[in-house]
Design brief:
The protein is α+β, with helices and mostly antiparallel strands and 271 residues long. It is built from 6 helices and 5 strands.
């Protein structure tokens, strides 16, 4: 308990009982937590000032010790009354500004060796426990330096802008949202023949597979990446991938099925 040794040596002449030594230890713990002693008694005296030392007459009453403290920032003023009840000391501390009260009961024999009042190095025992009792029983309940509530981190804006059905495993579309699709030349133009094969992303209709029912005329196609009800879930086909549909796509499909007629020589076993 650094700092208590010179204080004990200064107050040694007034220490005649074990409770005097205990009050000296309690006083120093309050000093360590940012309080300074103003004086003894309930009422302030003339020319009073804060000090780390015990005031004159602090040990006058061996049954009830009355000391007043003030924090170094002048925010709190404490009134300490230490009352002896048989072999125990009851510490009653009140914050005069907030009227909060804290109580701690200490068994004197747990912290003081009465046979060694003249030897500082042997008079105190269980000093860590004494520190903990004072900190948890007096300092904390009376409200030490309050910490400002930590602000909760705000949710990132990108998470708020995501659609409700966002799926992180789904392949994103190649075309950024909000951009216009490139304007391709009309398939009716004679110079557009074979142009679909030059588009590596499959953004233009047609291609190398000729559909006689649709060649040369733009038709409203489907987007396989959005899924086919009852057959493919959304995202099963990457956006922009070349996709040959299988089976009937619905009653709205115009014309006969291209697979309706078998190829020539279908029944030829030597094909």
């Amino acid at each position: 308990m650094a700092g208590l040794e010179p204080l004990y040596a200064w107050a040694r002449a007034a220490i005649s009982r074990p409770q005097d030594a205990l009050i000296c230890g309690v006083h120093w713990e309050l000093v360590r937590h940012g309080y300074r002693c103003l004086g003894a008694g309930d009422q302030p005296g003339p020319d009073e000032r804060k000090s780390e030392l015990l005031p004159t007459g602090w040990e006058a009453n061996k049954e009830v010790y009355t000391l007043r403290y003030k924090s170094t920032d002048d925010a709190r003023e404490l009134l300490l009354k230490a009352i002896m009840v048989e072999d125990s000391m009851i510490l009653n501390v009140m914050d005069r500004s907030s009227q909060k009260v804290a109580d701690v009961t200490l068994a004197v024999a747990d912290y003081i060796n009465p046979e060694h009042l003249d030897n500082f190095h042997m008079v105190y025992k269980n000093t860590e426990e004494l520190r903990t009792r004072i900190a948890s029983g007096i300092i904390a309940p009376l409200g030490g330096p309050t910490e400002k509530a930590k602000k909760e981190p705000k949710a990132e804006k990108k998470d708020a802008d995501l659609p409700r059905d966002y799926d992180p495993l789904r392949v994103p579309p190649r075309q950024p949202a909000g951009t216009r699709a490139p304007s391709w030349p009309s398939p009716l133009s004679p110079f557009a023949v074979g142009g679909e094969d030059l588009d590596p992303f499959g953004g233009r209709s047609g291609g190398m597979i000729v559909d006689p029912l649709r060649s040369g005329f733009p038709q409203p196609g489907i987007d396989p990446s959005s899924g086919i009800p009852g057959r493919l879930p959304p995202g099963a086909v990457p956006p922009g991938a070349r996709f040959d549909p299988f089976g009937p796509l619905g009653a709205g499909r115009p014309g006969p099925d291209p697979d309706h007629l078998p190829p020539p020589g279908y029944d030829d076993m030597f094909m």
